[in-house]
Every structure is written in structure tokens, then in C-alpha cells.
Amino acid sequence: KISFQIALLTTLILGAFTAHATPSAPVARVAVSVGEAKKWNAAGQEEPLKVGASLMAGDRIRTGSDSVAILIFTDEGRISLRADSELLIRHYQIDPAGVKTRIELELIKGTVRQISGNGSRTQPDRYRLNTPIAVIGVRGTDFLAKTTGDAVEAFVHEGKIVITPAQGNCAQSECAPVAMASSDSQLKYVRLSTDGHIEQREFRQGELERVFGIDMVRANGRNAPMAGSG
Is-above-0.85 flag for pTM? Predict the structure, then answer.
């Protein structure tokens, strides 16, 4: 009798929890998907990346060798993924009160252009773009990032970025930057190698398109498609 009562109580509790449980809200939508691009959800289920599709925290997006994808987030943040890129949306929680905002993305490989939304503009310390080599934090911002097996490269079009070690033991807001770049200076480009070597210099327009595959003149501004040149 006691076992039956426990089982019945457990069933009622689980039923009540299920009735009040709601799925996580989408954090972004797909604005552009050209070529072979795919999405994996947190459960590992794969499907083509389609225009208009909703994206959740935990989703992984991968572009093929001749494809581009553009994502628009709930706070109007935008990300353009170039060909052969992979991005994981770890967390994208926006708190209007500015207390629990948490934006954490992971560029596993390839190239992205990131235009910050309201969340990271008002609370830049709550944003981080992880790469295998370093972590990029923002003060703004509109920037490009590219990660390869031996380095991470970044170019700032508007605002400022700070780069900290990927394997630091400190909190992100307390980590001492190893490099930074700003649109207010001539040194808008920075490259950090796996051996710790830092390169920072001026970057001409032709170099920008060659290295990152994006023409900032044609892909300029928040309302531009962001896809860049092909």
C-alpha cells in the first residue's frame, strides 16, 4: 500500500511538472541560408538550415564549402557565418533589467562577422565569443573573427574587442587581456597564435577581403545583408 501511494504521488508530481513545463524560447532566427548549411540541436538531431527557422540555445550551425548563413538574435544582434564555419550557441539569455544577461557563443572553426545586439551593447561584460585559442570580449561592437588550427584573427570595424586566453582560470570580467583592437586606432587587426605570438598592424581593404572573405564596404551597416563578397 505504501509503495502504491509513493508511486501515485510521484506520478502526480511529474504530471504537474510536465503540465507547467514550457519549452525554451527561441534565441534567434535564420535570415539567410545559401548553399549547404545544417543545424544540430542539443540532442544531436540534424536538419538543413532553412530561412525563417528558429534557433535555440544549444544549437550548432555548420556551413559548407560554398555557403553563407546569417542569424538574427532576439536582441537584434547579428552573425554572418562564412563558408566552412561552425558556430555553437551555448547561451543567449537577455535580461532587460541587465542582471542575468548571458551571451556565450563558440566559434569552433571558420569565420564570422558579429554585430552586437542590445544585450552585449548595454552589458558587454556578459558577452564572450569562445574560440579554441582565445576568448573575444566586446565593447561595442562590429567585428570579424576567424579561427584556424594555429591562430585566431580579428578585425574591428566599429567599437573595441579584448582577447583573453581560452584556458584562463579567472572569471571573464577579471581576466587580463593579452591583446585588444579598436576602430579608433590604426591597429584594428590582431592575430594571436597558439604559441602566444601576437601580431597587430594596419589592414588595407584588399587584405581584409582576402583574409576574412568579407567586403566591409559592400556589407557595411546594421541593415546591410552582411553576407559580404563571395
Answer: no
